Amino acid sequence: MLKNEIAITPELVADLGLKPDEYQRVLDLIGREPSLTELGIFSAMWNEHCSYKSSRKWLRTLPTTGPRVVCGPGENAGIVDIGDGQVAVFKMESHNHPSYIEPYQGAATGVGGILRDVFTMGARPVAALNALRFGAPDHPRTRHLVAGVVAGIGGYGNSFGVPTVGGEVNFHPRYNGNCLVNAFALGIADADKVFYSKAEGVGLPVVYLGAKTGRDGVGGSTMASAEFADDADEKRPTVQVGDPFTEKRLLEACQELMATGAVVAIQDMGAAGLTCSAVEMGAKGDLGVRLDLDAVPTRETGMSAYEMMLSESQERMLMVLRPEKRAAAEAVFKKWDLDFAEVGQTTNDLRFHVLRHGEEVANLPIKELGDEAPEYDRPWSELQKPAVLAADTVAEPADYGQALLQLIAAPDLCSRRWVWEQYDYLVQGNTVQRPGGDAAIIRVDGTNKGLAVAVDVTPRYVEADPREGGKQAVAEVWRNLTAVGAEPLAITDNLNFGNPEKPDVMGQLVAAIKGIGAACEVLAFPVVSGNVSLYNETSGEAILPTPAIAGIGLLPDVAQNAGIALEDDGDVILLAGALTGWLGQSIYLREIAGREDGGPPPVDLAAEKRNGDAIRKLIRAGRITACHDISDGGLLVALAEMAMAGERGANIHAPEGAAPLHALLFGEDQGCYLLAVAAEEAEAVIAALQNDDVPVQRLGTVGGADLVVEGTLAVPVKTLRTAHESWFPAYMGEI
Amino acid sequence: MKARIIVTLKQSVLDPQGQAIEGALAALGFDGVGSVRQGKIIDIELSDPADAETRLNAMCEKLLANTVIEDYRVEMVE
Amino acid sequence: MKARIIVTLKQSVLDPQGQAIEGALAALGFDGVGSVRQGKIIDIELSDPADAETRLNAMCEKLLANTVIEDYRVEMVE
Amino acid sequence: MKSAVILFPGTNRERDMIAALKKVTDAEPAIVWHAKTALPDGLDLIVLPGGFSYGDYLRAGAISARSPIMRDVVHRAEAGVPVLGVCNGFQALCEAGLLPGVLMRNASLKFVCREVRLEIVNAQTAFTHLYRPSQVIRCPVAHHDGNYFADEATLDRLEAESRVVFRYAQGSNPNGSQRDIAGIINEAGNVLGMMPHPEDLTDPLHGSTDGLALFQSIATTAQEKAA
Ligand SMILES: Nc1ncnc2c1ncn2[C@@H]1O[C@H](COP(=O)(O)OP(=O)(O)O)[C@@H](O)[C@H]1O
Ligand SMILES: [Mg+2]
Fold this sequence. Notes:
The complex is a heterotetramer, with one copy of chain A, two copies of chain B and one copy of chain D. By secondary structure, chain B is an alpha+beta fold.
């Protein structure tokens, strides 16, 4: 066992991730040398993950309020009002590093963690998303990571019983050494049955629930090196293993328990489980907490206080219960065969006391643990804006048909069916739009309402221009929600960046947050929760800056939605939005012209809002038969996706615009949508759009078996489908 | 020739599967069952006995065992 | 005391996992790998050694093996 | 119609099933916890819904098949009460010995969620008489262990006795199941197990309501019996 009275050396302090000045702060705060357990507690509370010490200053600038916001950042998940006394509870979180080490378990426990964040608040999870970034397809580790991560997400979510309805997958060499696994969960609760982590009342039982504590994840640092451990092998840091079966029981038990009125406060145990959960409950409630670790259910013998306080064992919760309901609460947990143990009490002394074998191993001021965490204003550099790429400097493809086939079969644009078919996207019976469209839609159980969910970011845009890229990510989510007919309500963000101690990387983070904030402001799309993952670097090379944005939208009548599939021959195809032929940072530029340069397409936020609001009105009036926004790959790829989804062709003429044809067809202009409308509606829809000042042009009609751009290309939709569907299974060695 | 590879979870790694089996045995009335851990065996036939042990170890490292959480042992059967 | 239960698929039963491993080993360049079959082991600690063998056999019959498709063997470890 | 849905720890498609039953029978099914030893009286249908009971640990459906409530399920089945097992429920019925064979890991070794073309091979059972013979519907599957296996003699017998009720239509087999079997019935014709999810095909918002006929078949059979 690790002894608590071990000498605190500078090496140990560094090992636990505390900088010398941070350690000095600890000494100043408590006026003595900390015990090992105390040092562990500080290292957990003050690390980047818990304290947001590098990003907090900038996160504060994000818009977090709005008429629908019930609870913004700071709790386990954000909460927005969805009417009829119901709220949506959602959040996204990264599990990047664990997934790189052990892709199946890393991804699985990532899903488990985010589900817990949502049901801790009293909500029943109803949808999950996942945003994944992997290295180059030909990098030796990539295939293994893809296989493991996807299986892990499915393995956990499917068993738990939440439909995984969407996500993103990108490949880029800059993720060779650091894959990204961002998991999102959405739950629904009654507004008057939401639970928070703030404890209230002195002398109340603090109860531990769920799975037993092991050494999982303890000592991610080199803590277990020989000089501390008599038995190095025993103390080896271990990978967390997820148990969706226990999590599912924990969900049901929590829901039953919450219904009994026994719960005063509840907090799931995520990173640095017992430490963060206990401190948070106490500090938020202006209370002290006393924990007796001897009462904590353990799965291994001889665990030290240090190990128990830092264990990241999964599927555990901490609650403060009303004493008179304790027996009823215990009965619920026994029914579900879960551990239930009173491990402490709330106190009135604002201290965090931890006892082990009758000895006090930690005694710290509870509020200061959080409040006094260091906050940095790290130096950051203003990044240079890339020069705008003139479209006419990029060659036209030799063969448009070939170029289209090549694009839709490219790793970043091909069908993700191989991925989502491993996810149960139907469980719960409320899935209205499945993966494959702009946003997924689930019906709110027992109502006519729907919630749409989507996650987006285009890292190559953010890399080229972090501010525009941050804006674009928010705009794209907003647009994808709009494209299915939903009113975008709010977002959660997951900011994945490199080492913030480098001014360039910090500059990316700052600029991206500014862009995100600007877009949220104009689109009235507040941030209600989020997560920051920094230090995604290997051998000095950082990932592409990847601020993933997930958003939710509301459909008052879930039947009034639009999908991307072309449904009826003879429908007229319209383009709404201004097409400029923007090729900078486009997939065409990278895949066909072999270049990655220029600035990303700028987002005109006012136009974005105007176009989207107009289109949503039309969808809700039932006047649109299909809708798809233009994103990666441009207009032609968007139309091909609509044709493939509907298994029918389309015939258009070249769009009008000032740029060369290939730029109009493959440019990635923002704020644009392709619409299909019944022929007899076409004139009226055009008039309605014009009336709302939305640029609109008629492109052609739906029908036939080929995708045709007159005078330019004609490709059978079947050929498109084969190309689109083949890359992933072939890459995974299945065909 | 035949070999058997035995893959087990490392001691400190959680074994949800073993736990569920433990619970089920107790529910079925089997008393005194302590810890249950599940692992797997992989029986392999090799056409060429040369370097069998080395090759089998390589197979374990590369594919058959997830050495982040599992230990393995190679046994020659015949 | 400790026991190990080894559960294997009957010869006549198709083994998708084994087949997949076989294919994957070949793809990794391991030559001369004939049939691969996967099975499982269940390690059990018993607090009371009395009748261990009988009780373990009963556990297998009742739960641990599906005798429609699986064979099992009980080994005493210590 | 009086129905009961059995709930095991880890069951996760009971809500879908309850919604489908309510739609067809206009009555709330009884939810029966696995640790109970007796089902309510006078049932017209017992359902084992989908999910991952006991995490699918050891073998899918193995631990739940040995739950206390299963004695009474077997007892009622023997007395002729219709029993429907979907997905994990099918796996448990096989493990409990109410249906022959076993559902092994998918040949792809991956979980698969997709719509398959499903042929109603026997449209004369109490569960399927409202379908047309050989009708092909699009029905979702979502499972990791749906690869039906039985020895050749059993398979021959199942086919000879028209006990293969559902088959994956040609080219649609998602799991390597022998003879494309998607669902089978017991000798007496009152216990049906199937991997696809008819309960997720009962609302226009699901994209089709072709799953309703299964529940309606059961309901009309129950009505006829009552009359
Ligand atoms: N990891 C994933 N899991 C589930 N669905 C995914 C995943 N990646 C992509 N998808 C789905 O594939 C479709 C296409 O994705 P994407 O090209 O990113 O859409 P968009 O350009 O509209 O944002 C979407 O419906 C998306 O939800
Ligand atoms: Mg889109």
